[in-house]
Amino acid sequence: MKAIELVRFATGAIVAHPLRSGLTSLGVVIGVAAVVMMTSIGLGAQQRVTSTIAGLGSNLIIVSPASTRGGGGGFVMQAAGSSNSLTDRDAQALLQQVDGVAAVAPAVRGQAQLVADGANWNTRIEGVTPDYLIARDLVVAQGRMFDDREARQGRKVVVIGPTVARELWGEADPIGRRVRVRSVPFEVIGVLESKGQSSFGQDQDDIVLGPLQAVRSRIVGRRLRGDEVQTIYVKAASEDVLDRVQEDVSDVLRQQHRIRPGDDDDFSTQNMASILQASQAAVATFTILLAAVAAVSLVVGGVGIMNIMLVAVTERTREIGLRMALGAKRSHVLIQFALESVALSLAGGVVGLTIGVIGAVVIARIGSWPAAVPSWAGPLSLGFSVLVGLVFGAYPSWRAARLDPIEALRRE
Q1: Among residues 48, 172, 182, 68, which one has the least CA distance to residue 121?
Q2: Alpha-carbon dihedral sign for residues 36, 38, 44, 50
């Protein structure tokens, strides 16, 4: 028998029972679709986490009082009246004594109600220095950033995020307008470039930046004493010196705070690169787990193919005997049934891949993260479908090829 005839016989057997063939492939469809969607969702989440952490600033080290460190790389505001361990003097010492530093930016933060031109908005306000833009990789899209002189003098000027500008003034130009922050009047001198939403659902454009001294004394002064700050952002000059800079930062702060050898630090340092690696590893592990769970349905689909093929061998016993009596070899029967099994599995793989890609795109849009369908999803899914067809179709094909032609012809 020619190869084309074997393919024609296998195709005819599948087309002759469309409903049964469709139900047989259903397990593979579900399995492939689940694997593609779970993998795509995991990769999309990984990209979202990566972009969010990268949005905090590249080569960034975040220094905070030890008592304010929160889970997941976040920071928890200290209660009123508590003492912070970081000061302006610490930030100045880091800038002067640590080599390989591109910027050092102390900061304080709080929530505040904004009122302007009859509109009001509650948002996050941070008191910073001009180097904050360098440390956090922020860009002023409109207007300007306040300078060192304005920061030292505590001038009442602010740079706002796009969300704040939209909520208070709509499409109007906010530059030069007055806004009251907790009843304190400030002048808007700049608008930040949009950074979008973080993977944790936080709007990164919903923020107000003001001079450190002005915000500390007039907005969040009750929570701080003297020149205390809540966070110091240290930007390393390059990724190559990031680890060394982090060690030097710890050494300088231990000297500043007169911490004796063996005693615990009263501050914490977090390297954004390390947090990014840990987050990526966690998401990757979770993605593999989801894909492994989804792959179980592929095995179930393979078992379904085996069952149907065994039924097909039983139903077509006389057909097999007749073909073998007319000269067909056992290898021809083996190849024919193997082709049927692979065709059913491959068809299920194609349909499952299509459903998986569409599902991944839809879920990504709903979840507002990147639709990250890996380039290897197609070849791997189809290849695995063929493998499932071969593995689970092997025994039925072998059983069909082992039939005795005489006994097969006698079967009713």
Answers
A1: 182
A2: negative
Q: Which structure tokens are listed for 24?
A: 């047989």
pLDDT tier, 393 (very low <50, low <70, confident <90, very high otherwise) = confident
Residues 6+ apart with CB under 8 A from 49: 199, 276, 279, 280, 283
- Amino acid identity of residue 187, one-letter, is E
The domain limits of the chain are: 3-52+279-410, 60-237
Cα–Cα distances in angstroms (integers) from residue 126 to residues 88, 177, 315, in the given order: 15, 19, 77
Closest-CA residue to 374 (of 40, 30, 37, 33): 40
Dist CA 187 CA 61 (whole Å): 31
User: Measured on CA atoms in the order 121, 126, 127, 128, is the torsion positive or negative?
Assistant: negative
Nearest Cα to Cα of residue 8 among 343, 321, 409: 343
CA nearest to 397, candidates 13, 2, 5: 13
Q: Is 156 left (phi over 0), alpha (psi -120 to 50) or beta?
A: beta
d(CA 273, CA 45): 17
- Give CA separation, 321 vs 1, 213, 326, 350, 397, in Å: 15, 94, 9, 33, 14
What's the DSSP call for residue 220? S
Cα–Cα distance measured from residue 348 to residue 300, given in angstroms and rounded to the nearest whole number = 13
Single out the residue of 317, 125, 303, 141 nearest to residue 206, CA to CA.
Answer: 125
pLDDT (0 to 100) of residue 236: 87
Reduced to 3 states, what is the DSSP secondary structure of residue 179?
A: strand
pLDDT digits (tens, 9 = 90+) for 322-372: 666 666 677 777 777 777 778 888 888 888 888 888 888 888 777 666 677
Residue with the two structure tokens 């005795």: 404
Residue-wise pLDDT for 291-301, tens only, equals: 777 677 777 77
- Residue 131's contacts (CB-CB under 8 Å, 6 or more residues apart) are 103, 104, 105
| Structure letter (DSSP) for residue 173 | -
**Where does the pLDDT of residue 165 fall: very low under 50, low under 70, confident under 90, or very high at 90 and above?**
very high
285 and 298 in contact (C-beta within 8 Å)?
Answer: no
Encode pLDDT of 22-69 as tens digits. 777 777 888 888 888 877 877 777 776 666 665 555 688 889 887 544
**At 74, which amino acid appears?**
G
Report the distance separating Cα 186 and Cα 214, nearest Å.
10
Alpha-helix residue ranges (DSSP H) falling in 316-403: 317-325, 330-367, 377-401
